[in-house]
Amino acid sequence: xxxxxxxPAAALGALVTLPTLANDKLEEIIVTSSRVEMPLRQVxxxxxxxxxxxxxxxxxxxxxxxxxxxxxVGVSNTGGAGKVSTLRIRGADGYRTLLLIDxxxxxxxxxxxxLPRMEQVLSSGIGRVEVLRGPQGLMYGADSGGxxxxxxxxxxxxxxxxxxxxxxxxxxRQYAASVGYGGDSIDGNLSLTDYDTDGFNARTDDTSLRxxxxxxxxxxxxxxxxxxxxxxxxxxxxxxxxxxxEYDNCFNSSFxxxxxxxxxxxxxxxxxxxxxxxxxxxxxxxxxESDTENRDYSDGGFAFGGEGKLEKWSYLGSFAASDATRLVxxxxxxxxxxxxxxxxxxxxxDGYYLEYQGDLSNRFFVxxxxxxxxxxxxxxxxxxxxxxxxxxxxxxxxxxxxGTYGTGFRAPSLYEIGYNAGDFGNGVxxxxxxxxxxxxxxxxxxxxxxxLEAVYFEQTLDKPIFFDLVNFSGxxxxxxxxxxxxxxxxxxxxxxxxxxxxxxxxxxxxxTSDGDVAARRPEHLANLGLTWQGLEDRxxxxxxxxxxxxxxxxxxxxxDDYEVINFNASFTLFQSxxxxxxxxxxxxxxxxxxxxxxxxxxxxxxxxRYSF
Length: 612
Hints:
This protein is mainly beta. The chain has one domain (17-521): TonB-dependent receptor, beta-barrel domain (Maltoporin, Chain A), CATH 2.40.170.20. It is 6% helix and 59% strand. The strands form six sheets. The chain has a 22-stranded antiparallel barrel. It is globular, with a radius of gyration of 23 Å. Residues 1-22 form the signal peptide. Belongs to the TonB-dependent receptor family. Hemoglobin/haptoglobin binding protein subfamily.
């Protein structure tokens, strides 16, 4: 069809945010890069941002679908909502990426590789997301993927909130409510989301049951803050997620294959912190804990499961020596615990870091820092990062040149170690993975709101750990380096008042340590969005396209190339009542992101939201 021919030529980018004036964008506050607030003009790392308005306009129920619109983010889904999914940043596997929600590390330590369960995160209640791309071990102890940091909706002045109801194809229903209060000394927000879908048949080869594989999720998230004084703040965050998913292709108690499979996921997490902001010094001490439980059933009987706990004390400090110099420093003390039928495992890891931030002539900004980690099982590791940003004024805007070089490491998970040492394991002793990478970028911030950026990146992962898919003997470790390199192009262009074109394109050449093409990493990823606001901003329309090209399966066979078109709309009847809707996969594209697993056909959804 004609749209398939024009999309590759048009895809110089993806939907990011509605463009603003260049000066506003340069002054946008970024937190994830160095764990402290910094204006974008000073940031040398690769960070993408979506705010709550952007997330709501897209309309997706899952944050996975929101994140896949951002630069260099790829997703592999196995059969619909709530099914096991992998998020990759610049080709790095999801378990090499850190996910924070209101500062809580929500990694699932009951899972094989301590990955964040992105498919269990709903978009309702999320007010902002920042994605930091590349090896970022310095501030977080994270690995080659990067950091995804989400913050929930913040309360405005006084009392307010909203309630919404939505429904659509595949028997999908979502009810959500949020209430908040913002005062001089007390502020807080509480959100509740209940999502349920009948889904569709997850696997193409399910010819026995031919059933729909549904998913349900109930998420409660609360945040309470107290400004005890002008400089002292206490904050408490709590989160509870309960998800249940039906899926295909598991084994029953007789070790026979079946498509009658169910998984249950529960996570309770909380964080308490105290922060002091002085004239030059700032200090924050926090404790967070997340408890996760997974249970899988086949043909109605228990198949396997596990429990995990992640406990973390953290300290973050900063000292502004002058207007041009700041030091950021801190420490993390964490304990990982995993408990299943094979026994209980536990491990401690301590990390300490220091970063220098310098403003040279108000045009040249640099950071340099190092981190020391001591892992109970694998000893000590030192990682580091340097970055720089230089701004060049022009008559119609500003040019920004930037670059960064960073390193990271990942210790093998408790499950990987335990599996290899168990009765069915291969006995292979694993070592920690180490990563490094750099990127170079040039950006244009026009006074008319035009924003363009081109990024080149390279990163390597030494001694990558992977599961033996041939003999199923356990986890193996490559002797060489897995490599990923490519280009990211990002654009935001206000064509006319109320009309904006936005997009990104990523070329990614990802190889395994054996030199083979890395599986399920499209060489070409692109998103393109056209948005319009009219009738005094009461009517909002958006058309968004996503493209993926040249991806292979684990056996080297090619996966489907595809282009998916989504449409969304909203109309404000009056100040407090809004009608909204969307059509996903508007042209009913038939494709697979993982071979053998179905994806959604054309699906329409509509809802209503009342704000107070």
